[in-house]
Design brief:
There is one protein chain. By secondary structure, this protein is an alpha/beta fold. It has one domain. Helix content is 33%, strand content 21%. The chain has a 4-stranded parallel sheet with strand order 6-5-9-10, sandwiched between helices. The longest helix has 18 residues. The chain is globular, with a radius of gyration of 17 Å.
């Protein structure tokens, strides 16, 4: 008799201050432990991304949160792929230097990791990301121009034959906020994660293809008291390499109907 593979789904919500998985990559040890006993681990970017740090798991499927929700509800199926052709969306609201930094990071992934990248598209209007905090302390966010994002993704899919999407949006500078300082000290909630989830959910919901998001921000002032759980986010200028490596070699999503 054929034995079905032992599949485990690991979900850690973003922006809610999870004790494990609420920081950059601190859920990776948990994912690695589960992957050692499971035939297949299905999880999402919040679990596998440690900013610039990553541990490749050959039996893990990297699935964006909205797609994972649909899979858990029985609405979508997941199909593992060897690689995806990744289209890059850059926010028009990004300064020229930040845009260049991210394009250089993209070229680095193409040259050293062999990622299959299309040309990039700059949105026809600034996305206008805004950060919000609920009364409970959970973080989320909004986009002032969601149509601009969707038009850029549509262009990449139909003109550049993109099979997965990488979005880099300019996030508000918030280096002096109490929430960010608390997070850097190992307390509180990631102030960016909730807004990031809104962006990737929007793309996956409308186009049913993998998507990952990275915030564009200038580097924060050096702080010698950074918590080890937050330190991964202090060491790199962009998080392009890791997050979009996931969508390149992760999962292809399709609907049941």
């Amino acid at each position: 008799m054929h034995q079905r593979p032992f599949t485990v789904v690991l979900i850690i919500p973003t922006g809610v201050g999870a004790a494990i998985g609420g920081y950059a990559g601190d859920a990776l040890p948990v994912a690695r432990a589960i992957a050692q006993v499971a035939d297949c681990l299905i999880t999402h970017p919040n679990v596998l991304n440690g900013a610039q740090l990553y541990w490749p798991l050959p039996n893990a499927l990297y699935v964006e949160g909205y797609g994972l929700d649909q899979f858990a509800a029985g609405h979508w199926k997941l199909r593992p792929v060897r690689n995806n052709r990744v289209g890059i969306v850059l926010d028009q609201g990004m300064e020229a230097e930040l845009r260049l930094r991210h394009l250089q990071a993209a070229e680095a992934t193409r040259a050293t990791l062999g990622l299959n990248l299309t040309d990039y598209v700059v949105t026809d209007a600034p996305l206008g990301v805004e950060l919000q905090t609920a009364a409970s302390g959970a973080t989320w966010g909004t986009i002032q121009n969601p149509g601009s994002l969707l038009r850029a993704v549509d262009q990449l899919i139909h003109q550049a034959q993109a099979e997965a999407i990488a979005v880099v949006a300019r996030f508000p500078d918030d280096s002096g906020s109490e929430a960010l300082q608390s997070y850097r000290q190992g307390h509180g909630v990631d102030p960016l994660a909730g807004a990031e989830a809104v962006i990737s959910h929007l793309v996956v919901r409308n186009f049913q293809i993998p998507c990952a998001h990275a915030p564009a921000l200038p580097p924060l002032p050096l702080d010698p008291q950074i918590s080890p759980r937050s330190a991964a986010e202090e060491i790199g200028y962009t998080v392009f390499t890791l997050r979009f490596g996931g969508v390149e070699s992760g999962t292809s999503i399709y609907t049941l109907w």
